[in-house]
Specification:
Layout: E1 2-8, H1 15-36, H2 38-46, E2 51-56, H3 59-71, E3 76-80, E4 92-100, H4 102-109, E5 113-114
Parallel strand pairs: 1-2
Antiparallel strand pairs: 1-4, 2-5, 3-4
Helix pairs in contact: 1-2
């Protein structure tokens, strides 16, 4: 079991901002899993909460990954920034997918590169 967080590489974010956005995606997707796939969440948590952080080059690519995850019935969260610091309000920064079975996530994110 694992969780994937995919970050846009085409926008500039400071390290702290990037870390906060990744945390938002991880927590939001995990909360969805707790409600919809509690058995996946419990197994993932018991195994150490494995996460992988990947990158993609556009908002469109993130939205497509989110759509694919939802179609596969995986927990997923698309993160839009509130625009209080570095980014414009509504900027899509990342997507969290899972926790879920490794094979299911790999079908969607397996070709992406590590951040």
């Amino acid at each position: 079991m694992k969780q994937a967080i995919v970050v846009r590489s085409d926008i500039k974010m400071g390290k702290g901002k990037l870390a906060a956005q990744v945390a938002h995606a991880s927590l939001s997707a995990a909360e969805e899993a707790m409600g919809r796939r509690a058995e996946w969440f419990d197994e993932w948590k018991g195994e150490g909460q494995a996460k992988i952080v990947l990158k993609t080059g556009s908002e469109e690519a993130l939205r497509e990954l989110f759509k694919e995850a939802k179609a596969a019935k995986l927990p997923a969260a698309l993160i839009e920034d509130r625009g209080l610091t570095q980014l414009e309000p509504g900027t899509v920064t990342c997507v969290g997918i899972g926790p879920g079975p490794d094979e299911s996530l790999d079908k969607i994110t397996g070709k992406l590169k590590l951040l």
